[in-house]
Queue: 4 jobs
Job 1
Amino acid sequence: MISLLIVAEQPAMRKGLNMRLTAEADFTVVGETGDCETALALAIAHCPDVVLVDADMAFTDGIAIAKILHSMCPKTSIVILSIRDDVFTCKRAEEAGAKAIVVKSLPTDTLLTTIRRVVGSVDFPVATQIDEEKSLAATNKEEVNSNRDMREIS
């Protein structure tokens, strides 16, 4: 069973992630919070396998939280959720100790696969995960554009 902690400011995002993740037979959510202090307390109390951290919180720097979590719980894998996948964000995430960054606009299956990979594999560079996600997004975009072109022709 993979234990997860969700750190995201928006209650709707936390609830949605919690519902989706607990639908997986091999996942259990041990806590969720929108603030740094509670995140640290929950991480210390539960030592989750993975902490999902929203990088795009309005009142808190999610990547800074990830760095603190990584220093306090080095065996916990941190996955950053972000709207951005630029080089700066990826570098900050990697320097903070994150094992992966998942762009929020990607399909949920990408997040599920990423969680399983970071728990079941050796460290892999954040950039590798990003490149795979960009490739998947590009493939999906090409399929959508291809389907759109076909509809326009017919």
Job 2
Amino acid sequence: MAWRLSAAKIYRALLLAYPAEFRHEYGPEMERLFGDRSRTEPRIRLWLESLADIALSAPKEHLHILAADLRYGARMFSRAPGFTFVALSVMALGIGATTRVHALLWRELGRLLRRVAAYGGQADERQAPAD
């Protein structure tokens, strides 16, 4: 009996691999089926089949939801092309600016680290070699 209770908790935790929408709709039924099977089937076979099922079907469910969300987003963007253009332009500018600032910071950090390495741990601007 104790095995069934802990097995049910472990199975309930494994169901977290599914999307919340799917889990709320089918989770209780899946838990009941697992409990029924745990009383009649060998443990090893039950766990192997359950793990294989979760490993194969959970990613598929996530992809189904992602595809539905992408279709919905495309429909909404096609209804308002002006908004779409502005939104994508702002995103492109933001990503470009962030990338540029990141590159500049890494370049300056690299210069500083080369100076520190060249002078044995002391970064002195007056004695630094020209880059």
Job 3
Amino acid sequence: MKKITKITKITLTVLLAVTMLLTVVACGNSSGSNGGRDGGGNSDSPSTESDSTSAPQSGSTPTPQSNNRFSPVKDFEFILDESTNEVRIIKYVGSESEVHIPDKIEDNPVTLIGDSAFKGTSVISIIIPDNVITIGTSAFENTALMNMILGNTVITIENKAFQGTQLTNVTIPDSVTTLGMYAFSDTPLTNVMLGSNVAVIDGYAFSNTQLTDISIPDSATTIGEGAFSFTLLTSITIPDSVTTIGVQAFYNAPITYASIGNGVTTLPREMFGSHLGNDVLSEIILGNGITEIPDSVFYNFSALTKVTFGNSVKTIGDGAFNHTSSLTEITLPDGLETIGRSAFTLSSLKSIVIPDSVKTIEQVAFSGNYSLTDVTLGKGLTSIEPGVFSYTGLTSIEIPDNITLISHGAFTETPLTFINLGAGVTQIGAGAFYGSQFPDDIRDIISALNSAALR
């Protein structure tokens, strides 16, 4: 009896131990299962914070994630404008390369990123939240910034805000109206999408970038000096909304086609090329707002083959198309009044019709067009100025009755064999027809007006 009792006690002890062990194991499994649910995964593959925020692999380009995981407030120096209850970030003092600026600090909206706030930091990716209105001067200048998301409340991007960064793609939200001087210059930008309300693209905003294409929105009114200079743009269409284009706006960009909208009234100096010329632009369409083609604006544009004038052009300036060696044809607009000195000198025009509205053709305007064989003179002219058609390929010319004066050297060194002098011609200058090949009867008529006209 005592032996049975002893065995029973031993058995109960073993069963109790086994029961406790199973309870511990069960608790462990239960705990693991709960951890999987809380982390969003299962017990075999538990999710951890490091998994969801892991750093990018070496050599990859980090992409900012639009989420609510703001960078900690302690990473920013800021001030509170008590008059507006708005926060202005003065400086980033954190060490992270990926930054998500908080939309609020101490329950007050962050509306401004201050001047040079991130300059000199190691930031690579940035999320700028809604509430931010202004990105200050040089805010990210010369950082290694490669990726950026701009909030939908940004209105102004100040001067040099992203100059010298490593941005390659930028989307400007519709809220933005102003891009400051040098805002994105000296970056490897290849793609920019401008929002629908951008009004001002200030001087050198995209200068020295890798842009090959740009769509300027209908909201734009100003393209500043050098705004797209030293880019890789091959074509440009400027909408009617643009009224001002700064000098050298597209300087040294390989643009082959350009269309200027009706809002532009003046073509700026060296818009597409330097004073030495341009060897890539082949076609340009000029809008109806342009009244004057400035002096030398297309000088030595050796690839230019097609020019379409608007209907408001009154003046073609001195040397405007001088040395356009590929320009073989052009249609001058009705309403044109003045063709300047050397305007088309040393071009390759084959024919030209002078509209009746033209009152003055200045000296040597078409001189040196050796392929020019057909000229129609308008009814608005009263004189042919010195050297206007000298050194051309003309073999015949009709002088209308409205012309009274053929100035000295007007047709020097042209192979003329026929001329019909209008009834109004009363004066012919010395050497006006030097080098011509007129038959004797025509030479006699000309000599009767001035014996020196043929020599």
Job 4
Amino acid sequence: MRHTKVISGASNPDLAKKVCERLGIALVDTNRQQYGNGELSLSLSESVRGEDVYIIQSGSGDVQANDALMELVILISACKMSSAKRVTAVIPFFPYSKQCKKKARGTIPAKLVANMLHVAGVDHIMTMDLHASQLQGFFQVPVDSLFAEPTIAMYIQTHIKDYQNGVVVAKNPGAAKRSLASCPLHPSLFIPPSLSQGHLPRR
């Protein structure tokens, strides 16, 4: 792919390598140094001038969420200051997405993260299964929220024998809609949230 660069954060380098193998391009190396006080120093090992840059960094994985977030905004800023044409942040798990409502004498951390990414210079965000769809309204740039359910359902059908006798459990009411989306092939696979939380019906 011409004029395309992929950069990996420290959260999941194996995922970034697999993406690059699939695309047939080399992963851009970064110079990463962490000081004794925990601060990060990051720089790019090659030019990204005029390139479409994809930074793969999740809010979970091998590093703490706060470190992953800080590394992401530094990499975004480094790319923009290096004259990248476009910077897309690929964030499989969006950090602080569950904190999307204001509490008494508190703030909305999910919106704060969205603002941080915008200030850093991101042009586009790709993520998966946002905790709530209204989170997309927090961003000032385009957001693609992908869904994992079709891939999970396909994996179950392909790799698990006798899957028709299995069950899909929703851990809470918020997960019920997503669980139902995973069961178009056999509605009886779905267990209502009331049962999954241990509230069994009276006999």
